[in-house]
Design a protein that fits this description.
Mean pLDDT: 94
Structural class: alpha+beta
Strand order of the largest sheet: 2-1-5-3-4
Shape: globular
CATH superfamily of the largest domain: Beta-grasp domain
CATH topology of the largest domain: Ubiquitin-like (UB roll)
Number of domains: 2
Largest sheet: 5 strands, mixed
Low-confidence stretches: none
Radius of gyration: 16 Å
Strand content: 15-25%
Helix content: 25-40%
Order of helices and strands: EEHEEEHHHH
Number of strands: 5
CATH architecture of the largest domain: Roll
Distance between the termini: 58 Å
CATH class of the largest domain: Alpha Beta
Oligomer: single chain
Amino acid sequence: MPAKKRIVILKVNGSTYEVAIRPYDVLLDVIRENLNLTGTKRGCDMGTCGCCTVHIDGRARLSCLTLAAECASTNNATHEITTIEGLKEHGIIHPLQRAFAEHGGSQCGFCTPGFIMTASAFLNEHSQPSQDEIKEAISGNMCRCTGYIKIVEAIEAVASDAVGSD
């Protein structure tokens, strides 16, 4: 007998959604299939590529390994989920999105949303990272096209711009 669905409330990109989920539904599927937010990509389904990275309460998390039920709002807590679509503010793309384009940090673009979500959560906590710290921060994300150099350069550019604007 299939598991029964239940209605939960998810707060995604600042909007509240009521969605029907099964106990074993992962956040990646709910985001893509129920909410039609397809910027979050399905890569390995094992938590090794980072393509599915989103923010949950400001922290980078792999949505392929996170149960949607864990993110549901309850009487005790409301969890904030941010996808790549939610990084845009007032119609303006996030500085990391611009930097990836300007520095050639994406080629096919498939892994880019995961890298940007990982990097943005990292930069929120580390405003002046070294190159080695950036490399360590993105070590859970895989890219088969760029060789990582331009990805690191894009993240470095945003970090140095943030320092310059202080």
